[in-house]
Specification:
The protein is mainly α. The protein contains ten helices and two strands, in the order αααααββααααα. The two termini are about 105 Å apart.
Length: about 425
Amino acid sequence: MPTERPRYTAMGGVVVGTALMAMFSMTVALYCVFDGFQPSILAFVPVWGAFILFLDRWLMSSVAAPRVGARFRKLLPRLLLAIVFGVIIAEPLLLGVFHTAIETRVNDDRNEDALEYESTLKRCNPVPGTKEYDGPEAKRPDCDQYRFGLTSASEAQQRQVSDLQTQIESLRTDTDADDKEYARLESLARQECNGTDGPETTGIIGQGPNCRRLRAQADQYRRDQRMDANHKKLTDLTNEVTVLTGNVAAARADTADKINARIEQATAKFRADQKQIGLLERLGALRKLVHDNPDVRASEWGLRLFFIAVDALPVLLKFLNGFSSYDRIVADWLAGQRRAQRVVSETERRRLVIQEELARHQMNAEHASAVGKVEFDARIRNVDVDLLREQATDSRAAYLLHDAPTMPLPAPSRAEPEDVDPDGGRYR
Protein backbone atom coordinates (compact mmCIF):
# COMPACT_ATOMS: atom_id res chain seq x y z
CA MET A 1 0.00 0.00 0.00
CA PRO A 2 2.16 2.95 -1.23
CA THR A 3 -0.37 5.45 0.08
CA GLU A 4 0.17 4.20 3.65
CA ARG A 5 3.92 4.75 3.57
CA PRO A 6 3.91 8.45 4.68
CA ARG A 7 1.58 7.66 7.57
CA TYR A 8 3.67 4.81 8.88
CA THR A 9 6.86 6.78 8.32
CA ALA A 10 5.47 9.58 10.49
CA MET A 11 4.43 7.04 13.14
CA GLY A 12 7.93 5.58 13.06
CA GLY A 13 9.31 9.07 13.61
CA VAL A 14 7.09 9.41 16.68
CA VAL A 15 8.44 6.13 18.05
CA VAL A 16 12.02 7.27 17.49
CA GLY A 17 11.20 10.61 19.14
CA THR A 18 9.87 8.95 22.29
CA ALA A 19 12.96 6.73 22.42
CA LEU A 20 15.24 9.79 22.16
CA MET A 21 13.24 11.53 24.88
CA ALA A 22 13.63 8.46 27.09
CA MET A 23 17.40 8.48 26.46
CA PHE A 24 17.63 12.15 27.45
CA SER A 25 15.54 11.48 30.58
CA MET A 26 17.78 8.58 31.61
CA THR A 27 20.87 10.73 30.99
CA VAL A 28 19.56 13.38 33.40
CA ALA A 29 18.67 10.75 36.02
CA LEU A 30 22.09 9.07 35.86
CA TYR A 31 23.82 12.43 35.95
CA CYS A 32 22.03 13.18 39.23
CA VAL A 33 22.81 9.73 40.64
CA PHE A 34 26.55 9.67 39.77
CA ASP A 35 27.23 13.40 40.35
CA GLY A 36 28.32 13.95 36.76
CA PHE A 37 28.93 12.11 33.53
CA GLN A 38 30.33 8.61 33.93
CA PRO A 39 31.22 5.90 31.37
CA SER A 40 28.28 3.87 32.62
CA ILE A 41 25.94 6.59 31.32
CA LEU A 42 27.23 6.15 27.77
CA ALA A 43 26.86 2.37 28.13
CA PHE A 44 23.36 2.22 29.66
CA VAL A 45 21.52 5.09 27.97
CA PRO A 46 21.49 3.50 24.46
CA VAL A 47 20.22 0.24 25.98
CA TRP A 48 17.38 2.12 27.68
CA GLY A 49 16.56 3.95 24.44
CA ALA A 50 16.48 0.69 22.49
CA PHE A 51 14.19 -0.87 25.11
CA ILE A 52 11.71 2.03 24.89
CA LEU A 53 11.93 1.91 21.08
CA PHE A 54 11.07 -1.80 20.96
CA LEU A 55 8.35 -1.39 23.59
CA ASP A 56 6.63 1.43 21.65
CA ARG A 57 7.05 -0.55 18.45
CA TRP A 58 5.28 -3.51 20.03
CA LEU A 59 2.55 -1.27 21.46
CA MET A 60 1.87 0.19 18.00
CA SER A 61 2.05 -3.05 16.08
CA SER A 62 -0.43 -4.90 18.29
CA VAL A 63 -3.35 -2.47 18.55
CA ALA A 64 -4.96 -2.76 15.10
CA ALA A 65 -8.37 -4.48 15.06
CA PRO A 66 -11.34 -4.17 12.67
CA ARG A 67 -13.89 -3.21 15.37
CA VAL A 68 -13.67 -0.13 17.61
CA GLY A 69 -14.57 -2.06 20.76
CA ALA A 70 -11.85 -4.62 20.12
CA ARG A 71 -9.33 -1.86 19.42
CA PHE A 72 -10.31 -0.10 22.64
CA ARG A 73 -9.97 -3.29 24.70
CA LYS A 74 -6.50 -3.80 23.27
CA LEU A 75 -5.68 -0.11 23.69
CA LEU A 76 -6.50 0.21 27.40
CA PRO A 77 -3.78 -2.01 28.96
CA ARG A 78 -1.19 -0.73 26.48
CA LEU A 79 -2.16 2.86 27.24
CA LEU A 80 -1.79 2.22 30.99
CA LEU A 81 1.65 0.71 30.38
CA ALA A 82 2.62 3.71 28.26
CA ILE A 83 1.43 6.10 31.00
CA VAL A 84 3.51 4.28 33.64
CA PHE A 85 6.63 4.57 31.51
CA GLY A 86 5.68 8.16 30.74
CA VAL A 87 5.66 9.01 34.45
CA ILE A 88 9.09 7.36 34.88
CA ILE A 89 10.49 9.27 31.91
CA ALA A 90 8.83 12.58 32.86
CA GLU A 91 10.36 12.93 36.34
CA PRO A 92 14.02 13.33 35.27
CA LEU A 93 12.93 15.69 32.50
CA LEU A 94 11.17 17.86 35.08
CA LEU A 95 14.37 17.91 37.13
CA GLY A 96 16.18 19.22 34.06
CA VAL A 97 13.58 21.91 33.40
CA PHE A 98 13.57 23.21 37.02
CA HIS A 99 17.32 22.70 37.43
CA THR A 100 18.17 26.20 38.70
CA ALA A 101 15.27 26.52 41.12
CA ILE A 102 15.91 23.03 42.49
CA GLU A 103 19.59 23.69 43.19
CA THR A 104 18.76 26.99 44.89
CA ARG A 105 16.17 25.31 47.09
CA VAL A 106 18.53 22.44 47.93
CA ASN A 107 21.30 24.86 48.93
CA ASP A 108 18.86 26.81 51.12
CA ASP A 109 17.64 23.61 52.75
CA ARG A 110 21.21 22.49 53.36
CA ASN A 111 22.07 25.81 55.00
CA GLU A 112 19.00 25.48 57.22
CA ASP A 113 19.97 21.92 58.14
CA ALA A 114 23.52 23.00 58.95
CA LEU A 115 22.27 25.89 61.11
CA GLU A 116 19.84 23.59 62.89
CA TYR A 117 22.60 21.05 63.44
CA GLU A 118 24.86 23.76 64.86
CA SER A 119 22.05 25.02 67.10
CA THR A 120 21.47 21.49 68.39
CA LEU A 121 25.17 21.09 69.19
CA LYS A 122 25.16 24.36 71.12
CA ARG A 123 22.01 23.37 72.99
CA CYS A 124 23.36 19.95 73.93
CA ASN A 125 26.87 21.25 74.84
CA PRO A 126 26.34 24.38 76.97
CA VAL A 127 29.26 26.19 78.60
CA PRO A 128 29.64 25.34 82.32
CA GLY A 129 28.41 28.11 84.58
CA THR A 130 25.61 29.29 82.34
CA LYS A 131 21.93 28.84 83.10
CA GLU A 132 21.61 26.47 80.11
CA TYR A 133 24.21 24.13 81.65
CA ASP A 134 21.88 23.03 84.44
CA GLY A 135 18.69 23.56 82.42
CA PRO A 136 16.39 20.77 81.16
CA GLU A 137 17.22 21.34 77.47
CA ALA A 138 20.80 20.10 77.82
CA LYS A 139 19.64 16.93 79.61
CA ARG A 140 17.10 15.78 77.03
CA PRO A 141 17.54 12.17 75.73
CA ASP A 142 17.88 13.34 72.14
CA CYS A 143 21.10 15.14 73.08
CA ASP A 144 22.95 11.90 73.83
CA GLN A 145 24.29 11.57 70.29
CA TYR A 146 25.32 15.23 70.12
CA ARG A 147 27.29 15.59 73.37
CA PHE A 148 31.07 15.98 73.06
CA GLY A 149 31.83 14.71 76.57
CA LEU A 150 34.34 17.48 77.36
CA THR A 151 35.34 17.77 81.05
CA SER A 152 36.41 21.05 82.66
CA ALA A 153 38.41 21.78 85.82
CA SER A 154 36.11 24.72 86.45
CA GLU A 155 33.45 22.43 87.92
CA ALA A 156 35.69 21.23 90.75
CA GLN A 157 36.89 24.76 91.35
CA GLN A 158 33.33 26.04 91.29
CA ARG A 159 32.33 23.49 93.91
CA GLN A 160 35.29 24.65 96.00
CA VAL A 161 34.18 28.27 95.59
CA SER A 162 30.67 27.29 96.66
CA ASP A 163 32.03 25.58 99.77
CA LEU A 164 34.15 28.60 100.58
CA GLN A 165 31.23 30.97 100.08
CA THR A 166 29.19 28.83 102.45
CA GLN A 167 31.97 29.12 105.04
CA ILE A 168 32.21 32.85 104.42
CA GLU A 169 28.49 33.35 104.87
CA SER A 170 28.50 31.35 108.11
CA LEU A 171 31.62 33.15 109.39
CA ARG A 172 30.26 36.55 108.35
CA THR A 173 27.07 35.85 110.27
CA ASP A 174 29.09 35.04 113.38
CA THR A 175 31.43 38.02 113.01
CA ASP A 176 28.52 40.38 112.39
CA ALA A 177 26.87 39.17 115.60
CA ASP A 178 30.16 39.48 117.48
CA ASP A 179 30.79 42.96 116.09
CA LYS A 180 27.30 44.04 117.05
CA GLU A 181 27.67 42.72 120.62
CA TYR A 182 31.18 44.18 120.96
CA ALA A 183 29.96 47.55 119.72
CA ARG A 184 27.17 47.44 122.35
CA LEU A 185 29.65 46.69 125.10
CA GLU A 186 32.02 49.43 123.91
CA SER A 187 29.17 51.94 123.76
CA LEU A 188 28.07 51.03 127.27
CA ALA A 189 31.64 51.44 128.58
CA ARG A 190 31.94 54.87 126.90
CA GLN A 191 28.65 55.99 128.39
CA GLU A 192 29.78 54.88 131.87
CA CYS A 193 33.17 56.58 131.52
CA ASN A 194 31.60 59.79 130.10
CA GLY A 195 29.01 59.91 132.86
CA THR A 196 26.05 59.46 130.60
CA ASP A 197 23.02 58.65 132.67
CA GLY A 198 21.18 55.53 131.57
CA PRO A 199 19.55 52.32 132.77
CA GLU A 200 22.87 50.43 132.76
CA THR A 201 25.20 53.32 133.80
CA THR A 202 25.78 55.24 137.09
CA GLY A 203 26.02 58.69 135.47
CA ILE A 204 29.33 59.43 137.25
CA ILE A 205 32.07 60.87 135.04
CA GLY A 206 35.58 59.38 135.29
CA GLN A 207 37.55 56.16 135.18
CA GLY A 208 35.72 54.52 138.01
CA PRO A 209 35.42 50.89 138.79
CA ASN A 210 32.31 50.51 136.67
CA CYS A 211 34.05 52.15 133.73
CA ARG A 212 37.00 49.84 134.03
CA ARG A 213 34.76 46.85 134.55
CA LEU A 214 32.76 47.52 131.42
CA ARG A 215 35.90 48.12 129.35
CA ALA A 216 37.43 44.90 130.66
CA GLN A 217 34.17 43.09 129.87
CA ALA A 218 34.26 44.37 126.27
CA ASP A 219 37.91 43.39 125.87
CA GLN A 220 37.26 39.97 127.35
CA TYR A 221 34.37 39.44 124.92
CA ARG A 222 36.63 40.34 122.02
CA ARG A 223 39.21 37.83 123.16
CA ASP A 224 36.71 35.10 123.95
CA GLN A 225 35.05 35.35 120.53
CA ARG A 226 38.42 35.54 118.73
CA MET A 227 37.13 38.44 116.73
CA ASP A 228 40.52 39.42 115.29
CA ALA A 229 41.25 35.87 114.10
CA ASN A 230 37.77 35.54 112.64
CA HIS A 231 38.11 38.83 110.76
CA LYS A 232 41.47 37.71 109.38
CA LYS A 233 40.06 34.34 108.39
CA LEU A 234 37.12 36.04 106.69
CA THR A 235 39.51 38.23 104.74
CA ASP A 236 41.64 35.22 103.70
CA LEU A 237 38.60 33.25 102.61
CA THR A 238 37.34 36.21 100.60
CA ASN A 239 40.72 36.58 98.86
CA GLU A 240 40.79 32.84 98.11
CA VAL A 241 37.29 32.98 96.63
CA THR A 242 38.38 35.89 94.46
CA VAL A 243 41.35 33.91 93.13
CA LEU A 244 39.28 30.76 92.54
CA THR A 245 36.57 32.78 90.85
CA GLY A 246 39.14 34.10 88.40
CA ASN A 247 40.41 30.57 87.77
CA VAL A 248 36.88 29.33 87.22
CA ALA A 249 36.23 32.10 84.73
CA ALA A 250 39.44 31.30 82.86
CA ALA A 251 38.65 27.55 82.84
CA ARG A 252 35.14 28.21 81.61
CA ALA A 253 36.44 30.49 78.88
CA ASP A 254 38.88 27.75 77.81
CA THR A 255 36.09 25.16 77.84
CA ALA A 256 33.88 27.50 75.84
CA ASP A 257 36.64 27.89 73.25
CA LYS A 258 37.03 24.11 72.99
CA ILE A 259 33.27 23.59 72.65
CA ASN A 260 33.02 26.27 69.99
CA ALA A 261 35.96 24.74 68.11
CA ARG A 262 34.36 21.29 68.23
CA ILE A 263 31.03 22.74 67.08
CA GLU A 264 32.75 24.45 64.14
CA GLN A 265 34.53 21.22 63.19
CA ALA A 266 31.33 19.17 63.43
CA THR A 267 29.38 21.74 61.42
CA ALA A 268 32.11 21.88 58.76
CA LYS A 269 32.09 18.06 58.55
CA PHE A 270 28.28 18.12 58.28
CA ARG A 271 28.50 20.52 55.35
CA ALA A 272 31.29 18.49 53.73
CA ASP A 273 29.25 15.27 53.96
CA GLN A 274 26.48 16.83 51.91
CA LYS A 275 28.67 16.71 48.77
CA GLN A 276 26.85 16.84 45.44
CA ILE A 277 23.09 17.06 45.03
CA GLY A 278 21.61 13.59 44.48
CA LEU A 279 18.51 12.40 42.68
CA LEU A 280 16.33 11.91 45.77
CA GLU A 281 17.35 15.30 47.13
CA ARG A 282 16.38 16.94 43.84
CA LEU A 283 13.02 15.18 43.85
CA GLY A 284 12.40 16.32 47.43
CA ALA A 285 13.31 19.91 46.55
CA LEU A 286 10.96 19.79 43.56
CA ARG A 287 8.13 18.60 45.82
CA LYS A 288 8.78 21.49 48.20
CA LEU A 289 8.80 23.99 45.35
CA VAL A 290 5.51 22.60 44.07
CA HIS A 291 4.01 22.73 47.55
CA ASP A 292 5.13 26.31 48.28
CA ASN A 293 4.56 27.95 44.88
CA PRO A 294 1.25 27.57 42.97
CA ASP A 295 2.88 28.76 39.74
CA VAL A 296 5.51 26.05 39.94
CA ARG A 297 2.79 23.52 40.74
CA ALA A 298 0.82 24.44 37.61
CA SER A 299 3.94 24.39 35.43
CA GLU A 300 5.13 21.11 36.88
CA TRP A 301 1.85 19.33 36.27
CA GLY A 302 1.51 20.80 32.81
CA LEU A 303 4.96 19.59 31.79
CA ARG A 304 4.40 16.19 33.41
CA LEU A 305 1.16 15.65 31.51
CA PHE A 306 2.84 16.81 28.32
CA PHE A 307 5.71 14.33 28.69
CA ILE A 308 3.29 11.52 29.58
CA ALA A 309 1.14 12.32 26.55
CA VAL A 310 4.21 12.36 24.30
CA ASP A 311 5.29 8.96 25.56
CA ALA A 312 1.77 7.55 25.07
CA LEU A 313 1.47 9.21 21.65
CA PRO A 314 2.46 6.11 19.58
CA VAL A 315 -0.37 4.06 21.06
CA LEU A 316 -2.86 6.91 20.67
CA LEU A 317 -1.86 7.52 17.06
CA LYS A 318 -2.29 3.86 16.20
CA PHE A 319 -5.74 3.90 17.80
CA LEU A 320 -6.80 7.15 16.14
CA ASN A 321 -5.69 5.94 12.70
CA GLY A 322 -8.33 3.24 12.91
CA PHE A 323 -8.30 0.09 10.80
CA SER A 324 -6.46 1.21 7.65
CA SER A 325 -6.21 -0.50 4.25
CA TYR A 326 -2.78 -1.78 5.15
CA ASP A 327 -4.15 -3.24 8.38
CA ARG A 328 -6.93 -4.92 6.40
CA ILE A 329 -4.41 -6.46 3.97
CA VAL A 330 -2.27 -7.62 6.87
CA ALA A 331 -5.33 -9.05 8.62
CA ASP A 332 -6.37 -10.95 5.45
CA TRP A 333 -2.83 -12.24 5.02
CA LEU A 334 -2.70 -13.38 8.65
CA ALA A 335 -6.09 -15.07 8.26
CA GLY A 336 -4.82 -16.94 5.16
CA GLN A 337 -1.68 -17.92 7.06
CA ARG A 338 -3.80 -19.24 9.91
CA ARG A 339 -6.00 -21.25 7.51
CA ALA A 340 -2.94 -22.65 5.73
CA GLN A 341 -1.42 -23.52 9.07
CA ARG A 342 -4.60 -25.28 10.15
CA VAL A 343 -4.57 -27.34 6.89
CA VAL A 344 -0.91 -28.23 7.42
CA SER A 345 -1.56 -29.13 11.05
CA GLU A 346 -4.57 -31.28 10.11
CA THR A 347 -2.60 -33.06 7.34
CA GLU A 348 0.25 -33.72 9.71
CA ARG A 349 -2.15 -35.01 12.33
CA ARG A 350 -3.84 -37.41 9.85
CA ARG A 351 -0.44 -38.59 8.62
CA LEU A 352 0.57 -39.39 12.18
CA VAL A 353 -2.73 -41.23 12.78
CA ILE A 354 -2.33 -43.35 9.61
CA GLN A 355 1.28 -44.08 10.47
CA GLU A 356 0.23 -45.17 13.93
CA GLU A 357 -2.51 -47.46 12.54
CA LEU A 358 -0.08 -49.08 10.08
CA ALA A 359 2.38 -49.67 12.87
CA ARG A 360 -0.34 -51.27 14.96
CA HIS A 361 -1.46 -53.58 12.10
CA GLN A 362 2.13 -54.59 11.47
CA MET A 363 2.60 -55.37 15.12
CA ASN A 364 -0.57 -57.50 15.13
CA ALA A 365 0.57 -59.41 11.99
CA GLU A 366 3.98 -60.08 13.52
CA HIS A 367 2.29 -61.33 16.66
CA ALA A 368 0.00 -63.68 14.70
CA SER A 369 2.98 -65.01 12.68
CA ALA A 370 4.94 -65.67 15.85
CA VAL A 371 1.98 -67.49 17.42
CA GLY A 372 1.53 -69.68 14.24
CA LYS A 373 5.18 -70.57 14.18
CA VAL A 374 5.09 -71.62 17.81
CA GLU A 375 2.03 -73.78 17.18
CA PHE A 376 3.60 -75.35 14.05
CA ASP A 377 6.79 -76.18 15.98
CA ALA A 378 4.70 -77.80 18.70
CA ARG A 379 2.82 -79.99 16.16
CA ILE A 380 6.15 -81.06 14.54
CA ARG A 381 7.50 -82.11 17.91
CA ASN A 382 4.33 -84.14 18.60
CA VAL A 383 4.65 -85.93 15.21
CA ASP A 384 8.30 -86.80 15.93
CA VAL A 385 7.35 -88.27 19.29
CA ASP A 386 4.60 -90.45 17.75
CA LEU A 387 6.98 -91.75 15.06
CA LEU A 388 9.62 -92.59 17.65
CA ARG A 389 7.06 -94.35 19.79
CA GLU A 390 5.89 -96.46 16.80
CA GLN A 391 9.48 -97.35 15.88
CA ALA A 392 10.17 -98.39 19.45
CA THR A 393 7.08 -100.57 19.50
CA ASP A 394 8.03 -102.25 16.23
CA SER A 395 11.58 -102.93 17.46
CA ARG A 396 10.24 -104.46 20.66
CA ALA A 397 7.89 -106.66 18.79
CA ALA A 398 10.63 -107.87 16.41
CA TYR A 399 12.89 -108.66 19.33
CA LEU A 400 10.20 -110.66 21.06
CA LEU A 401 9.37 -112.62 17.90
CA HIS A 402 12.84 -113.50 16.60
CA ASP A 403 15.64 -112.91 19.12
CA ALA A 404 14.11 -113.65 22.53
CA PRO A 405 14.40 -117.20 24.21
CA THR A 406 11.48 -119.63 24.32
CA MET A 407 10.88 -119.02 28.03
CA PRO A 408 8.55 -116.16 28.45
CA LEU A 409 10.13 -113.11 29.89
CA PRO A 410 8.51 -111.53 32.89
CA ALA A 411 6.73 -108.28 32.27
CA PRO A 412 8.72 -105.29 33.35
CA SER A 413 7.80 -103.98 36.75
CA ARG A 414 6.60 -100.49 37.27
CA ALA A 415 9.40 -100.00 39.76
CA GLU A 416 12.07 -100.54 37.04
CA PRO A 417 11.97 -97.64 34.66
CA GLU A 418 15.52 -98.21 33.52
CA ASP A 419 14.35 -99.81 30.23
CA VAL A 420 13.18 -96.44 28.92
CA ASP A 421 15.50 -93.64 27.91
CA PRO A 422 14.19 -90.56 29.68
CA ASP A 423 15.61 -88.27 26.98
CA GLY A 424 14.40 -89.79 23.75
CA GLY A 425 11.97 -92.51 24.86
CA ARG A 426 14.03 -95.24 23.10
CA TYR A 427 14.87 -98.64 24.65
CA ARG A 428 18.48 -99.33 25.57
